[in-house]
Amino acid sequence: MTTILKTSPFTLAVCAEMVFRSLPVLDRLKRITELGFQAEIWDWTKHDIKAIAKSSATFSSMTGYITGTLADDDGAEELLRTARQSIPVAKELNCPRLNLHGTGLDGQGLPVVKSEVVTGAMWLKAADTLNRIADLGEEEGVTFVLENLNEAVDHPKTPFAKAADTLALVAAVNRPSLKLNLDLYHAQIGEGNLIELCRTALPHIGEIQVADVPGRKEPGTGEINYPGIARALNEMGYRGTIGMEAWPSGDDELALSRFRDAFSL
């Protein structure tokens, strides 16, 4: 009997903020690396950058700002200012993608600036802000990615939360230094139809993030058919990064094994 070894056509990364949480971050990065994954981090101001830069980890993405918003004048200036501060950190970590949201998020993931309604003026301001972000990315040789979120469970009243919103903004700017961080966990809660969403967004995707629904656990614990999505992405020609941004349902290594299996063909 012939055994067929599966491999992944994608680069697989794991969020170091969500796995091996009983360990210090340097030990988390060590375990993630030993298991063959790249690593992602959130707020870089909460880490000893010089220490983690000396780790063996390959970094896939990090939060690309500290504070700021897309759709008001003061918030946009703050976003640009702190995005500029984030770039030297990304370069020290050799991290290719800097992640953005429609507004800053607090420690519970709630929007710093809540929006009941996103007006036409806010859309125009957000597009202008992202054009300036793209200018900054081009100047510095880095890529910013705009992440979709969900309002129903994790991030209520966040402006530009849906994948349709983030895709519309990224497509309007349409520059290589600004891409979409397509989070399929958030998209399943907010929109569904994930394979067609991937197909529509494909030209603008900088990274895809995953977790299952409900619960934001690893693939294989909920309703999303991630092996089917993996096959569809492969057929579409996607060869980029898939990042697991999920809480392990039990054993951390088992969760990472399930993630790898879901995206191996």
TrEMBL record:
One of its GO terms (molecular function) is isomerase activity. Keywords: Isomerase, Plasmid, Pyruvate. The active site is at 147 (proton donor/acceptor), 245 (proton donor/acceptor). Gene3D superfamilies: Divalent-metal-dependent TIM barrel enzymes. Residues 43-250 form the Xylose isomerase-like TIM barrel domain. SUPFAM superfamilies: Xylose isomerase-like. Pfam families: AP_endonuc_2 (PF01261). This is Hydroxypyruvate isomerase. It comes from Rhizobium leguminosarum.
